[in-house]
Amino acid sequence: FGMDKMLMSFYLVRIMSMNSRKHQPKLGKLHQKETKKKILMQRLKGEIRSRCESIANEILMHFRSQKKLQGEVSLSDTLETDKDGNSLFLLDIVGVEDTMLEDLEAKDACLRLRRLVRECLTEREADIIERRYGLCGRSPKTQRELASDYNISRSYVSRLEKKALEKLKAAMDGIDTP
Length: 178
Known about the structure:
Distance between the termini: 159 Å
Strand content: under 5%
Number of strands: 2
Low-confidence stretches: none
């Protein structure tokens, strides 16, 4: 009986060790599967994070491009559409003033005035008008400053200026005045 007990305990230990060996590879495979799963999850999280960052970057780029265009408005932008499908454009509401003709006339008058200053006035009168009103790229000066520069009284500068302006007005109107 003692021997049987020994044999029985031997077989029991052997069976347990075999069972533990059978389960050990299973635990190892389970552990490997879990490890692979964790690695795949980490990679997946990294890819998702990368895609999210990429999408966020694209959205940010879109907003930046829209911000650049934010101040731009086209006259052909549709404001609204009526029930018949007719569009109301910004151009229909905003009146466009064409000042090109007035601008050309003003430029022509300036050129004519400069020519008349050279042709109709004495050298002193022309210099006083040019310096007084800032013509020919000069800065405008007061009558006092001109009087000081010419070493004359301010009232005399005023009389010279008045006489020169009368000559220019007459020349602009087409009347020659001596």
